[in-house]
What we know:
This protein is an alpha/beta fold and 309 residues long. The protein has three domains: 3-88 and 266-287, Rossmann fold, CATH 3.40.50; 92-176 and 290-304, NadA-like (Rossmann fold), CATH 3.40.50.10800; 177-262, NadA-like (Rossmann fold, 3-Layer(aba) Sandwich). Helices cover 44% and strands 15% of the residues. It has helices at residues 3-20, 32-37, 44-53, 65-74, 97-105, 120-123, 135-140, 154-164, 176-179, 183-192, 206-209, 218-227, 240-248, 271-280, 289-304; strands at residues 22-27, 40-42, 58-62, 79-81, 111-115, 128-130, 148-151, 169-170, 197-200, 214-215, 232-236, 253-256. Helix 8 links the parallel strand 7 (148-151) and strand 8 (169-170). Helix 1 (3-20) packs parallel to helix 14 (271-280) and helix 3 (44-53) runs parallel beside helix 4. The chain is globular. It starts with a helix and ends in a 5-residue tail after the last helix.
Amino acid sequence: MAVDYVDTLIADIRRLKKEKNAIILAHNYVLGDVQDVADFVGDSLELSKKARQVDEEVIVFCGVSFMAETAKILSPEKKVIHPVTAAGCPMADMADAPALRRFKQDHPDAVTVCYVNSSASLKAEVDICCTSSNAEEIIGLIPEDRRIIFLPDKNLGANVARATGRQMILWEGFCPTHMRLRPAMLERKKEEFPHAVVIAHPECRPEVLDLADYSLSTGGMLSFARSTEAKQLIVATELGIIHRLQKENPDKQFIPISEQAVCMTMKMIELEDVKRSLETLTPKVELEPDIITQAKAPIVRMIEQRLDI
Length: 309
């Protein structure tokens, strides 16, 4: 896009935010120019906490659909706008509520832990949610004599099981973007940049994490990058995080594990979509009241780190 056109779009978005009493929340994986126009950029846990606290009447959520749903669950009185409804999450689509209900019948005594990368209807069926940044702490809340169903991401579940020593019944879901990242890719990068520190997202395969120096959520990666003395970091997660890492740490080099590490749905929301959503206050996220009530409890337990079941 031409510079003048982009500047005009940004100016329009800023004007419309004030007119509509709106806040823009964005995930670390969305397009860089959308991150730059947002009021708050974060990982799933940070965004959940922020959505619960906003004063504005309108939340424009730049991320995938389950994130916008979570914002609506936590702030049901707000108008939550998701600029591109087609921006879904393939992992979230790998688990649905009827299938989970059938699965739980085979494991009636298990505590069900659901990654936030899941639909509102699925969250309504579980005991507690978690994110990649707090999954180990959430698992630690569960009594050791209770079995655990973990869904939908088998990689995150397997990595948390290794870290905590807990046995878990894992759902067969995964993030296609992180699943594409293989040990050979990381080995090549480590050979090319032998002094680089490797940070990898826990949605990666366990054998990729075995080659990494640190397993971190996107929020954890940002904190680590600010504090480390390392000047080169190999980053094993979706490419969108590189924009913010480089912006916040201009003196450091961030090397993506692969140019294939792209989530296309995270890239669907563009500045024009944000502007149009602010103009029309559409598309609105609409959820049934009972789904909001049932799904809110496991999300709040996650945020407050309590398991009152």
